[in-house]
Predict the structure.
Amino acid sequence: MSTPIQATPGAAPTGAAPAHEPAANASAAALTEAAPDSAHSLATPGAAPTEATPALEPAGHAPAPLGPGPRGGGAPARRRAVVRGSRPAGSRPSVLGRVLSLVGLIGALVPPLYLLSVSLMGRDETVAGVLTPATPRWENYGAVLGDSDLPLAVGVSVLVAVLAGLLSLAGGLAAAWSIARLRVVSERWVGVLLSPWLLPPVVAVVPLFLLLRLSGLLNSIPGLVLVYALVNLPVVLWLLLSFVAKVPQELIEAARLDGAGEWRILASIGLPLLAPALVAVGLIVGLQNYHEFLLATFLTQGPESRTAPVVLSLFYGDRIPHVGRIAAAGVITALPPVLAALLLQRRLVSGLTHGASR
Amino acid sequence: MASQTLSAAPPGAAPASPEKGPTAGGRAGAPARPAPGAGRTRRFGRLLLTPALLGWVLIGVVPLLFIVANSFFESTLGKPLRRWAGLENYQEALGDPDAVAALWRTAAYALGVTAASVALGVVLALAVYSAWRRPGALRTVLLVPLFIPPVVVGVLFKQVFNPEGGLLAVLAKAVGLPAPGVLSSADSALFGVAAADVWEWTPLVFLLVLAALLTVDRSVLEAARLDGAHGPSLFSGVLWPAIAAAVASAALIRLVLAFKVFDLVSVMTSGGPGQSTTVASYLIHRVALREFDLGRASVLTLALAVLVTLITLPFIALNSRASRLEEEEGA
C-alpha cells in the first residue's frame, strides 16, 4: 500500500542531483495526491469507527475488499499515477525499449509455440529438422488421451493442487491473522516459519517418505495433499501478511466492543476483506503444487496417485521415445495451469507483486 | 501511510524488523493494549498459529533432526539407523571428489542462473517500462513461461537442443553452422539446463521489477529529464532507488528457486553426460533412492543445507538492508 508513496520521495534523497528541486516538489505533490487514494482503499466505505459496527453483518456494509483486483490494494493509486503523468512533448517512447520488449516477447513465445508444433509432428518429422509438420498429426493427442495414464494424472494433479492449496490458505491465513492482527508473536517468526522453504525440498524428502510410510499415507492422494499443504503454508503466510496488516484495526476493535467473538471477527471482517488476496495467493500456491515434481516422484509411485509431471517424465522410458507424442503430453500437462493463470492473471500479478516485494 | 497509524507496528516491518529480539517475541512484541478479554484473544491467536507451527516442526525440524541422526549411522530406506557409524559417512561422502564437485557445481549453477535471470529481468522490465505506458497485455504474455510446469519446460528444451532436428539445430543449419549437441556434451550440458531455468524464471524478476517501476511517478521522471538527466543518470538517480528493494527480493527468491533445481536435470540430462549436470539435489536423490545409502545421502544433504545457508545469508542481509532503507526514506 505505502509503496507508491514511499518510492517517490525515495528518488530525491538518494541522488538525482540535477533534478533535486523539481523532483522534491513533484514528490511532495505526489504525496498529497496519493494520500486520498490510500485513505480511500483503507478507510472503506462506511468504515468510520462509529459506523463500523453494522459491518459485522456480513452482507450489510461489506467494506471494499483489500488486496489485489481492480478495487483493492495500491492498484488504483498506482494506475492513476501512471495515467496522471501524461507524457509531455519531448519524451517519446524509447525505440530501444520497444526493440528489447519485442525480443523478450519472441523469447517468451517461440518455445511454447515450437512445443505445440512438435506435438503435431510424426516420428520422422521430429528428427527431420522441420519447424512445422506437413500435416498435423492429431493422433498424437489421441494416443496420449486414449492410451496413457496422463488424463487420470492430470485429474489427480488438479485435485491435489486445489485441496492442498485450500489447506495451505486456511493454515496460512490463520497464522497471518495471528501474527499481523493479534500480535501473538513478533513478525520475526515469519522468517523462522519460512526457513524450511529456503532449503531445497530434497532435504525433507526422505524423512517425509518415512513419515508417510509410517502413517500409511505413502502413494496416496491424501498423503501428497498433506505434504504440499504443509510445505506451502509458510509461503501463504508470507504473501498474505501485508494484506492482513491492512485490515483496519478500528473495525476489529469496534466489533470486539460489540461483543463479537474472535472467530466471528475473523470470519465476517477478515474473510470478506481478504477474499481477493486469498484468490491470488491461492492461485500462486495452486500453481506451485501442480508444478511440483521432486516430492511427487518420491511420494507417489502407484498409477492411481501419480501426478501429471511424474507421468510425463515416464514417457521417456520407452525404448524409442516418440517425441511428438511426448510433446503432446507436455501440452496437455501444461494446459490446466496456463489456462488458470491466464484467466486470473490480474489477481495473480497483484498477489505476487504486493506479497513478495514489501 | 494511513495504514501505519492504524496498527501499532508498521506493517512493512516484515521479518527483519530491527526493534524486537526473537526471544522477546511473545509478550514483549505485542503492544500493551489491555483490552477486555485480552487473554481470550491471546489464546485464540495461539490456536491460530498451531497449524503453522505444526507444519514447521514436520517439514523443517523433524527432517533436519532425522538427517543429522542418520548421518552418523549406517542407514537404508528400509532400515534407518541400523548401525552406529561415527564419522564414516562423512569421510566417505566428503572424501568423494564427485560429490564435492556436485556441491560446487550446484553453488556455481545457482549463482550463475540467478545473475542471468536478474540481469535479463531488469533489462526487460526497463525496456517495457520505457516503451509502453500501460504494459498490461504485454506483461501477461511475457509471464507465460512462469505458468508452464518445469517438467514440461524440460521436455520443451530437450527438443529445442536436440541435435537431430531440434529448433537450435534448424536455426544453426539456416546460417550454415553445424548442429550443436548442447545436452550431449559435458562442456555445455549444464548451460543447456541453465538456459531452460533462466527462461522459466526470468519473468518473475521482470514482474517484480516492473511493479516497482510503475510506482515511480512519471512527473518526477519528467522533472528529472527537464533538468538534463538522461540515460545512465536518470537510471541511477530516479529509477534505481525505486527498484533496488524489488531487485534485492527478486534475487533472493530466484536464488532459493535455483538451488531447488531437480526436475529440469531429471528430464533433460539425468545428471549426465558423465557427471556434468549432477547437481546436489539430483545426487542426493540418486544416493538415497537408487543406491539406498541413507547415511551418505544424509551427509550430502547436510552439506547442501550448509552451502545453501552460507550463500543465501548475504542475500537475506541485503534484503533487510534494502527494506530498512526504504522504510527510513518512506517515514
In short: The first helix of chain A runs from residue 3 to 11. The radius of gyration of chain A is 25 Å. Chain A touches chain B through 157 residues (CB under 8 Å). Chain A has 15 helices and no strands.
